[in-house]
């Protein structure tokens, strides 16, 4: 698993072959196949191992925060710190997901987690669940793609959270029909 995980981070899932895994692990290809019958099994095991070492932020850490703004800042700050620490893996995973069928289910599970986080954050604001622009803004704000775009613009994580907070405040000041 360590060999697979390191190859995924170094060259990406799309370029990681069973031969490369075997070479990195110092074993024969047959040994890899004995442990993992197919690419999906390799991805499931690798994903599980990597997420065990790099778990996403736990929403329980901000669930008790009543103030919607503080809850939002805490949640987004935790997600952005996580993306900062795990950038290499998320970057190659997002790049390769369309080309690697075995990667699609784990990525969909993570996208589902982010959707749950954004919906929870929206629900804390007045009219939040019924405000389509707020849902769209928060749904985008919690993604790796949004974080990465802002990071590529040399905006640090604290500034990213403050910027997204300004987006949300602007959305809430306008009417849903705007």
Describe this structure in words.
With 178 residues, the protein is an all-alpha fold. The chain folds into 2 domains: 2-51, Arc Repressor Mutant, subunit A (Orthogonal Bundle), CATH 1.10.10; 55-173. The protein contains 10 helices and no strands. It has helices at 2-11, 18-25, 29-35, 39-53, 68-85, 87-96, 101-123, 132-141, 144-152, 157-173. Helix 1 (2-11) packs across helix 2, helix 4 (39-53) packs parallel to helix 7 and helix 8 packs antiparallel against helix 10 (157-173). The radius of gyration is 19 Å and the shape is elongated. The model has no long low-confidence stretch (mean pLDDT 92).
Our measurement of the CA-to-CA distance between the termini, rounded to an integer number of angstroms, reads 50 Å
Structural class: mainly alpha
Query: Helix tally?
Result: 10
**Cα Rg:** 19 Å
- Order of SSEs: HHHHHHHHHH
Pfam families: TetR_N (PF00440)
Protein name: TetR/AcrR family transcriptional regulator
Domain HTH tetR-type: 1-54
Organism: Aquibium pacificus
Summarize the structure.
The protein has about 180 residues and is mainly alpha-helical. Helix content is about 70%, strand content about 0%.
Question: Characteristics of this structure?
Answer:
178 residues, mainly alpha, Arc Repressor Mutant, subunit A, 2 domains, 10 helices, elongated, HTH_TetR, HTH-type_TetR-like_transc_reg, TetR/AcrR family transcriptional regulator, transcription regulation, transcription
């Amino acid at each position: 698993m360590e060999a697979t995980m390191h190859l995924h981070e170094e060259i990406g899932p799309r370029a990681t072959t069973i031969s490369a895994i075997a070479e990195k692990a110092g074993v024969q290809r047959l040994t890899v196949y004995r442990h993992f019958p197919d690419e999906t099994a390799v991805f499931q095991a690798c994903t599980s191992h990597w997420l065990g070492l790099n778990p996403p932020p736990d929403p329980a850490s901000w669930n008790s925060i009543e103030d919607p703004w503080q809850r939002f800042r805490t949640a987004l700050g935790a997600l952005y710190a996580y993306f900062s620490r795990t950038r290499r893996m998320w970057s190659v995973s997002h790049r390769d997901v369309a080309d690697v069928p075995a990667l699609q289910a784990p990525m969909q599970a993570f996208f589902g987690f982010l959707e749950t986080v954004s919906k929870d954050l929206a629900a804390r604001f007045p009219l939040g669940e019924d405000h389509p622009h707020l849902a769209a803004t928060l749904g985008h704000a919690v993604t790796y793609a949004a974080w990465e775009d802002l990071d590529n613009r040399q905006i640090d994580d604290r500034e990213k959270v403050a910027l997204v907070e300004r987006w949300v405040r602007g959305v809430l000041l306008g009417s849903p029909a705007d």
